[in-house]
Amino acid sequence: MDTATFIRVLNILEKEFPKWNAPVVSLMAKREHRTPFQILISTIISLRTKDQVTAEASERLFKLADNPYDMLKLTEEQIAKAIYPAGFYRNKAKTIKKISEIIVKKNSGEVPDSLEELLKLPGVGRKTANLVLALSFDKPAVCVDIHVHRITNRLGFVKTKTPEETEKELMKKVPVEYWNRINDLLVAFGQTICKPLSPLCSKCPVEAYCEKVGVVRHR
DNA sequence: AAAACGGGGGC
DNA sequence: GCCCCAGTTTT
């Protein structure tokens, strides 16, 4: 698949997006109500966790503390209890506490707005850093999670082993003005149609363009 | 490169 | 009961 076709796919998916009723609660539907700190913390909570669970856990935590100063006053146990159903709660609580401390003590209460600085925070990798850049600061960023990695390979647009390779390829092949649309669209698409194991190809609006790399079963 | 971190939900 | 989920860090 070439770049022009990939962009055509994005355009089609964008039109179909409202029909999917994808469970994008915490990071997309409410982004305009959230501070950069809340986006960052929600993203930490979302690691390997379903979106609905992430949303509920975030709300519980933000009722206790929605800014780094208040968050720093909570104990790790309090944070862990609030986010418990999201899983990895001890690691995440520790990470959230450390991040709050760094933001308060070394960055005058502000979330960093550059990739380099975000990556220095504990528990923040490329996916989280790029998502914060895109959602909080409206900067162009290619945010590659498991959905983006799977779908771009399945379409035949990239041939990569790791999400990091996928990120590099997408930055190379896709014009910058499309970067911030990739993640939202492909995640929603992956949650509803282009599923990991048994994608619903008969309902897929872009099946005609797809090379179905690695797809063994479909419906 | 592989393990560890984890409860919840789908089937 | 078994497998997967908007990943990152450590071994």
Automatic annotation (TrEMBL):
Binds 1 [4Fe-4S] cluster. [4Fe-4S] cluster binds at C194, C201, C204, C210. It is an enzyme of class 4 (lyase). One of its GO terms (biological process) is nucleotide-excision repair. Its EC number is 4.2.99.18. Belongs to the Nth/MutY family. This is Endonuclease III. It comes from Persephonella hydrogeniphila. The lineage of its organism: Bacteria, Pseudomonadati, Aquificota, Aquificia, Aquificales. The gene is nth.
